[in-house]
Design brief:
mainly alpha; 6 helices; globular; 118 residues
Length: 118
């Protein structure tokens, strides 16, 4: 089954930086397309590490998700790889010109998405 990258309307605005344009035109649609897989990655991560989310407040869940994605480099790289694997060559070259900025944007969007999906 092939997935098709969704087109997200209302994200494009005048005077957007190249980073914002790339984020809204490329990164956000890929993350939306990969949503179920990303959630499965997180659930598997929590299960393997015996992290109990059932008896924890919403706020603590949000903080834990943020901490996981900021501190666990291996998990973070799995998440990034699942996004980068959907780039075209042109998208990859743009991403590669400023990986630090792009990774920060990707991870922040994923943190928000995970937190909103609790």
């Amino acid at each position: 089954m092939t997935k098709e990258r969704p087109i997200l309307k209302n994200l494009m605005k005048d005077n957007m930086s190249d980073f914002e344009l790339f984020q809204n035109k490329t990164i956000r649609p890929i993350i939306k397309m990969q949503h179920n897989l990303l959630i499965a990655f997180l659930e598997s991560y929590l299960q393997k590490r015996k992290i109990d989310f059932l008896n924890v407040s919403e706020e603590k869940k949000k903080l834990k998700i943020k901490a996981i994605l900021e501190k666990d480099i291996q998990f973070r790289n799995i998440i990034l790889g699942s996004i980068l694997g959907h780039f075209s060559m042109d998208e990859y070259f743009f991403y590669n010109s400023s990986t630090s900025e792009m990774n920060k944007r990707i991870i922040n969007i994923i943190i928000q998405r995970f937190q909103d999906s609790l």
